[in-house]
Structure formats: C-alpha cells, structure tokens
From TrEMBL:
It comes from Mucilaginibacter auburnensis. One of its GO terms (cellular component) is cytosol. This is 6-phosphogluconolactonase (Cycloisomerase 2 family). Residues 1-20 form the signal peptide. Keywords: Carbohydrate metabolism, Glucose metabolism, Isomerase, Signal. Belongs to the cycloisomerase 2 family. GO terms for biological process: glucose metabolic process. It holds the Pfam family Lactonase. One of its GO terms (molecular function) is isomerase activity. Residues 152-175 are annotated as: Disordered. The keyword Isomerase applies.
Length: 380
C-alpha cells in the first residue's frame, strides 16, 4: 500500500518536476567569462584580459590575457567560439580569435584592414555572416564577411560618409562611432558624431552589398549633439541614443525602417556648464530601466525608468563613478552591472535592485590599464 501511494505521488509530481527542470534550463547563466578590452601601451595593458565572473555573488577571478593592439571594442560570435576586436590604430585593423569559453583562452586567427582609420566599434549579426566596423577617424563603415572557420575575409562593402556639422573642433568631417542591428536584423543603423546624423540601412546578411540605404536614409539630431551609441528595445519599437557632445539621451519610435523622434532628456544637472561627454547606453534585461554614462567633469552613471508604451524616459538617479566611465554591460539576469572607467584604470561591479533601480558598488574592483569595453560570455 505504501509503495502504491509513493508511486501515485511520484506520477502526480512528475509534471511539476519536469516544468522545474525546464525553468532551470532557461534561467540566466550563473558563470560567465568577462572580457575586457582597452588601449595598450608598453608599460600598461597588452590586449584583451579575461576574468571568470560568478553571477550569484559578483566575485571575479583572473583567467588570462592575450596581446593585440588597442582592442578598444569587441564582439563575440553567437556560438561563443570566436571573438572579434577592432585595433584602434591610425591604420585600422580588425582581429579574429578563436575562443574557449570553458577556459577563457583566446587564440589569434587572422587580421584584416578595417577599411578606415581608428575603428571604434564592431558588431556581428546573429547568423555570424558579417562583422560591421565603425571607423571613427575618417567616417567609414565597413562590412567584413566571416568565413566558416571563424576567420575574417576582406571587406565586401565600405560606406564613406561625407559632410560635417557646427563644431569646428570635433565636426569638420564624418566620425562614425557605432552601428546597431535592429532585433529582427532587417535594418542596421549607425551614428555619425561628425555629421549629427543617425543613418538607416536595410540589411541582408547573405547579399553583396549587405547594406542599402532606406528611402529616408538618415535622422538628423540637434546640431552639435554628436550621436555616439544606441540600443533598441527588445521588441524593436524604440531606439535610444546617447549623444556624446550634447550629453543627452534621445528616444525614437522605429517602424518600417523609419525613426520618429519622441523625446530628449539631459544627462547633466540643471545649470551645469562644465565639460560633458556622453558615452554608452544600455537597457536592463527586463527593459524597465535604461542606463547611460557621462564622462567629462561629472563622471557619472545615470539611471532612467522606461515607459514601454510611449518610449519616454524618466530620470531616477545618478551615481558617481571612476574617471572616464566608458563602456559597461548588464548581466543577463539583471542583477549586476559592470563598468569600465578608462581614466581610473579600473572595472567596477555594481549590484542592482530590480524593484527600485538602485545600484550598490561592490568591493571587488578590477585593476586594468585604460579599459574601454567589457563583455560577458556564458561559460556554462
């Protein structure tokens, strides 16, 4: 009788156990590789540094370092087997590495020209067909096909921007700072600090050329604002843009390859007249919060609440950071934020309260020379 009762209980509980297993399988990873890139020098950083990051505690441990020149921005292939980095030199390059996410080890594969000067940003599509490189120095956007072995082929397309804007020191010519694919990857948008424009292109990964300008090819921002980095909402309905020179965050609606301006919020306190320099922008995984960094005299990380219906932002709070808060990343579970403070030579880790939007700095700062980009890769 006891055996029969136990068997019945097991049968009743079996669907619950199966659901629990599925839930665990879909849960965010708990162990990551943290890749840190930046500016290299003989007496400083030599390339890409890799740490193990534990998302249950925020603890980190050093894994290794791989030499490459000025890896100021990098991206990781969707299957986690390859890492691609710009080499932000006068004669720009793009380097490919194989990547073992179990050990954090990187091995150099090959290097191609970035098709321009001082490449500042790189991204890869979901099919790993192409990497797209933004060359800040001379305003060129380059598409480089990815070979089946992970190596990079020479550029298949280069777009050269023209023009300038109102600031004679920063905007005499084009300066492409970043490019972002829409969530459905039917479009690629890129921000040109030098021309104060966000350009809109249709994207077809398997075609040559992969990029074709939309019928309305760009959205103009306020003269002198200097658009820098962007992020789409997960549903692709909204685009958020941080302006470097204007230190403001713009909200746009996005549909059918067109941007429609919604609102702009300042990143500086009322009455502030000092140096400002907006840098990076990201949404929390649940889309409820938006973060942005501002360098210059303030050195701050700002937190905004998002309205998922209107796309508008509401300022919540600001946090003082190390000097030159450049790039940052948000852990997929939404519990941690990791920030590279370039001029303080440190990477800081913050614990995040999802209910309140409050960030709490942890006491485990990573010392690294001139960090400019951080990426988390699942190690599970």
């Amino acid at each position: 009788m006891n055996k029969l009762l136990a068997c019945l209980c097991f049968i009743i509980l079996l669907p619950v156990l199966v659901m629990a297993q599925k839930k665990d399988k879909n849960a965010p990873p708990k162990v990551f590789d943290l890749l840190i890139g930046g500016y290299t020098s003989p007496d400083g950083n030599s390339g890409i540094t890799v740490y193990r990051f534990y998302a249950e505690t925020g603890r980190v441990s050093f894994l290794g370092e791989t030499a490459t020149s000025n890896p100021s921005y990098l991206c990781v292939s969707p299957d986690r087997k390859f890492v691609y980095t710009v080499n932000e030199d006068a004669q720009g390059g793009v380097s490919a590495f194989s990547f073992d996410y179990n050990s954090g080890k990187l091995n150099f594969i090959n290097k191609q020209s970035s098709g321009g000067a001082q490449p500042a940003h790189i991204t890869i599509d979901k099919e790993a067909r192409n990497v797209i490189v933004s060359n800040y120095g001379d305003g060129k956007l380059t598409v480089l096909p990815v070979n089946k072995d992970g190596s990079l082929a020479p550029a298949s397309q280069t777009i050269t921007d023209e023009g300038g804007s109102v600031n004679p020191e920063r905007q005499k010519g084009p300066h492409i700072h970043s490019a972002v694919l829409s969530p459905d990857e039917k479009h690629l948008l890129y921000a040109d600090l030098g021309t104060d424009k966000v350009y809109i292109n249709k994207y077809k990964a398997g075609k040559t050329p992969a990029l074709i300008p939309e019928s309305t090819p760009f959205e103009q921002v306020n003269p002198g604002d200097g658009p820098r980095h962007m992020e789409f909402s997960a549903d692709g309905k909204f685009l958020y843009l941080v302006n470097e020179m204007g230190a403001a965050v713009n909200s746009f609606a996005f549909a059918d390859g067109k941007l429609k301006f919604i609102d702009s919020v300042s990143m500086v306190p009322p009455g502030f007249t000092g140096e400002k320099a907006g840098a990076d922008i990201h949404l929390s995984p649940d889309g409820n919060y938006l973060y942005a960094t501002n360098r210059g005299a303030l050195n701050e990380l700002l937190v905004y609440a998002t309205d998922k219906v209107t796309g508008k932002l509401r300022f919540l709070t600001r946090y003082h950071t190390g000097q030159g808060p450049r790039n940052f990343t948000v852990e997929p579970g939404g519990n941690f934020l990791i920030l590279a403070a370039q001029k303080s030579n440190e990477v800081s880790i913050y614990k995040f309260d999802k209910k309140t939007g409050v960030l709490i700095p942890l006491n485990n700062t990573i010392s690294v020379s001139s960090p400019s980009v951080v990426k988390l890769v699942s190690a599970e």
